[in-house]
Design brief:
The complex is a heterodimer of chains A (364) and B (215). With 364 residues, chain A is of the alpha/beta class. In chain A, 32% of the residues lie in helices and 24% in strands. Chain B has a single domain, classed as Thiolase/Chalcone synthase (Peroxisomal Thiolase, Chain A, domain 1, 3-Layer(aba) Sandwich), CATH 3.40.47. The longest helix of chain B has 16 residues. Classes of the chains: A alpha/beta (364), B alpha/beta (215).
C-alpha cells in the first residue's frame, strides 16, 4: 500500500506554511538575535508567538482536520516526534521553585503532548518517539511503514518542540550556537540557531487530487561519536541511499535534497561530503534552517512540509545567507530555481549518530 | 487493527530498589574512558542486550523518563552556577542508551526510541513488531527506567524500584498458530511504563515463545 501526504500545516518562527514558504523564497530569515535569553550570550533564536505549546498543537491539528477528508481523528493513529515533550513547563517550575515538589511527572515526559491532543480529538491510539533531532523524521518513517503493511488507514504525524532554556544552554555549552542568523554551507558559518515549531502531516493510504507521495524512508547509525558525525559520512550516505532504494528510485531521479544543514561546522561539512559522494549528478541542495532555525525534534516534519510545497510550487528554494560556499562540489542555488520537481530527499541527523532520510515525490 | 506473530528468541529483566549493583560493565565496555561516560540507562541496556545474546542490527528502545540523572545534573547546575556540562547535555537525550550500544558494538543499523508515558513498553513492542515485519531481521526490543536521583521522593509516586529494565529479542513468525495473546504477568512495584514488556518476559519464562502483537 502506498503512503500519501494528504494534508499538512505548521507554525514556526516564520508563521504558518504559507508564511514560511514566502519567507524561504524571499530569503527573509525569521531568526531574531537575542541578548537576554541566556545570560552573557548573544544567540540567534527562532521564536513562535504563542501562549502555550498545547494551544499551538490544538490550532494546527484543527487546520489539518478541517482541510482533510476526515470528519474526526477517531480512526487515526497519532505519532509524535519531540525532543523535549513537557520539559518547557517543568523546567520553569524547577528553576523558579528550586524543587521537584510541584512538578507533575505526567507532564514531564513526551506523552504529555500526545495525551493533550488525544483528549481534545479522540485519536484511535497514540505513540511518541524521541530520537533528538530526528524525532519527527522517525515518526514519518514509522508512519510510512505502518501504511505499507496495511496496519492503519490514517496517521497524523506531529513534530513539536518548544524552546527550552536547558536546550539552548546545552547547545551553548557545546559551543555550536551562532550569535547571528545561521549560514548553512558557508565557509564562514559559525553555528546553529535553536528554534521551535509544531508541524503536522496527515498520511493516508488513499490518493487525492492534492497528494504528495511519501515514497521512501531510510535510517542508519553512525556508530562513531555521540555528537560529532562520522567524517567519512558513511551514516548519512547510508540513510539517503536506503530511502532512495525504499522508493524504488535511482539516484538521478532525485531533483533536490532538503538538507539537515544546521550550519554547525561539523554537520555541514559531513552532509556536503555525503551528497557529493552519493549523487552522480548536480542534484540541487539547500537548507531552510537559515529561515526557520533548527526546530530540533520538529525539524523532520517541518522540512517534510517544505519539501511537499517545493514539489507543488515547482520551485527549488535558494540558500539564504550563502556568500562563500565551502564545498563547491555540490549544487547549492543562491536564487530560486523554477523547474518540475518530482522527487526530494529530506535529511535529519541527530545526537548519537542517528540519521533519517525521507523521500517525497509526485504520485507514481 | 493488524496483528502479527512474534517469536521470542531470548529475554531478560533486572530491577533494584535503589541501584542495580552488578552490570558487568568492565567486561561489556573495556574502554575506561567510554565506560566513564555511560549513563545508568546505557549500562542497564548494555547489560540486558548482552543477557539476550543480541549481536546487533535494529534496536527499538523505550523509556518514559529517559536519562533523569543527566537531566537532574543539568537542572541543578543551572540553579547552582548557571553552567552546564556538555557531556551531561549530550547524554540527556532519549536515544542516549541505544546510541552508546551502537557506538560500542559498531552497530550501524536503525535505532528508534519510544517514549509513550506509561504505555512506553507496549508501544516499544509494537514498534519492534513493525520493524521485525518490515525487515525480517532479529530486533532488540528493550525498555529501561533509571530514576534514582537525589530528592526523587519529592515526585516519585509510580515505583518501588528506582532502576529497572527489560529486554527481548524477537523475529517475525509467518505462522500465527500457537501464538498467544500477552497475559498479565506484571511485577508489583515496577513502574507501569515497563510492565507490558515485563509481562512478555514473564510468559516467556513460562515457556511461551510466540506472541500476538497489534501493530
Amino acid at each position: 500500500m502506498n503512503a500519501y501526504i494528504n494534508g499538512y500545516e505548521l507554525l514556526c518562527d516564520a508563521g504558518n506554511t504559507q508564511d514560511l514558504m514566502e519567507a524561504i523564497y524571499a530569503k527573509k530569515s525569521a531568526i531574531t538575535i537575542d541578548e537576554s535569553y541566556l545570560e552573557d550570550v548573544t544567540a540567534g533564536l527562532g521564536k513562535m508567538e504563542y501562549d502555550t505549546i498545547f494551544d499551538v498543537l490544538e490550532d494546527v491539528a484543527e487546520v489539518v482536520l478541517k482541510e482533510s477528508n476526515l470528519e474526526n481523528f477517531h480512526n487515526t493513529l497519532l505519532i509524535l516526534g519531540s525532543s523535549v515533550g513537557g520539559m518547557q513547563e517543568c523546567e520553569d517550575i524547577f528553576y523558579s521553585q528550586k524543587s521537584y515538589k510541584n512538578i507533575d511527572p505526567d507532564r514531564y515526559s513526551m506523552n504529555v503532548l500526545t495525551d493533550h491532543l488525544s483528549a481534545k480529538f479522540g485519536f484511535y491510539d497514540t505513540r511518541a518517539l524521541s530520537t533528538a533531532c530526528t524525532s519527527s523524521a522517525n515518526a514519518l518513517l514509522l508512519a510510512k511503514r505502518l501504511i505499507d503493511v496495511e496496519a492503519y488507514d490514517n496517521i497524523l504525524v506531529v513534530g513539536a518542540d518548544g524552546l527550552c532554556y536547558s536546550t539552548v544552554l546545552g547547545f551553548s555549552a557545546l559551543g555550536v550556537l551562532s550569535d547571528r542568523v545561521c549560514t548553512p554551507f558557508d565557509k564562514d558559518r559559525n553555528g546553529m540557531n535553536v528554534s521551535e515549531a509544531v508541524a503536522m502531516l496527515l498520511i493516508q493510504n488513499v490518493k487525492t487530487d492534492n497528494s504528495i507521495e511519501l515514497k521512501g524512508v531510510g535510517a542508519s547509525s553512525d556508530a562513531y561519536h555521540m555528537t560529532n558525525p562520522d567524517p567519512e559520512a558513511t551514516g548519512a550516505i547510508s540513510s539517503m541511499r536506503a530511502a532512495i532504494e525504499d522508493a524504488g528510485l535511482t539516484l538521478d531521479e532525485i531533483d533536490y535534497v532538503n538538507a539537515h544543514g544546521t550550519a554547525t561546522p561539523a554537520n555541514d561539512r559531513v552532509e556536503s561530503l555525503a551528497i557529493e559522494k552519493l549523487f552522480n549528478h548536480d542534484v540541487y541542495v539547500s537548507s531552510t534552517k537559515a529561515i526557520t532555525g533548527h526546530t530540533l525534534g520538529a525539524a523532520g516534519a517541518v522540512e517534510a512540509i517544505v519539501s511537499c510545497e517545493v514539489i507543488k510550487k515547482s520551485l527549488i528554494p535558494p540558500q539564504t545567507g550563502l556568500k562563500n560556499q565551502e564545498n563547491k562540489n555540490i549544487n547549492i542555488p543562491t536564487e530560486s530555481v523554477s523547474m518540475g520537481v518530482k522527487n526530494i530527499v529530506s535529511n535529519s541527523f541527530a545526537f548519537g549518530g542517528n540519521n533519517t532520510s525521507i523521500l517525497v515525490g509526485v504520485c507514481s | 487493527m493488524k496483528k502479527v506473530a512474534l517469536k521470542i528468541l531470548s529475554s531478560s529483566k533486572i530491577y533494584a530498589k535503589t541501584k542495580i549493583e552488578d552490570l558487568d560493565e568492565k567486561r561489556l565496555v573495556p574502554s575506561m574512558m567510554l565506560r566513564r561516560r555511560l549513563t545508568r540507562n546505557s549500562k542497564v541496556m548494555l547489560y540486558l542486550s548482552d543477557k539476550c545474546g543480541f549481536n546487533g542490527t535494529k534496536i527499538v528502545y523505550g523509556t518514559c523518563y529517559s536519562e533523569l540523572q543527566e537531566a537532574a545534573k543539568m537542572a541543578n547546575a543551572v540553579i547552582t552556577n548557571g553552567l552546564l556540562s556538555p557531556t551531561s547535555f549530550q547524554n540527556s537525550v532519549y536515544n542516549t542508551a541505544p546510541s552508546y550500544y551502537s557506538l560500542i558494538h559498531k552497530d550501524r543499523d536503525e535505532i528508534i526510541t519510544v517514549s509513550s508515558g506509561m504505555k512506553t513498553s507496549l508501544d516499544t513492542l509494537k514498534t519492534a513488531a513493525l520493524q521485525a515485519l518490515v525487515s525480517k531481521e532479529k530486533i532488540l526490543c528493550v525498555a529501561v527506567e533509571c530514576i534514582n536521583i537525589e530528592n526523587i521522593e519529592e515526585v516519585n509516586r509510580c515505583t518501588d524500584y528506582l532502576e529497572a529494565g527489560v529486554a527481548i529479542v524477537v523475529e517475525i513468525s509467518d505462522d500465527m498458530t500457537d501464538a498467544k495473546e500477552i497475559e498479565d504477568h506484571k511485577i508489583d512495584g515496577i513502574i507501569d511504563s515497563l510492565q507490558d514488556l515485563m509481562s512478555v518476559v514473564g510468559i516467556h519464562d513460562d515457556g511461551i515463545d510466540k506472541i500476538l502483537v497489534e501493530l
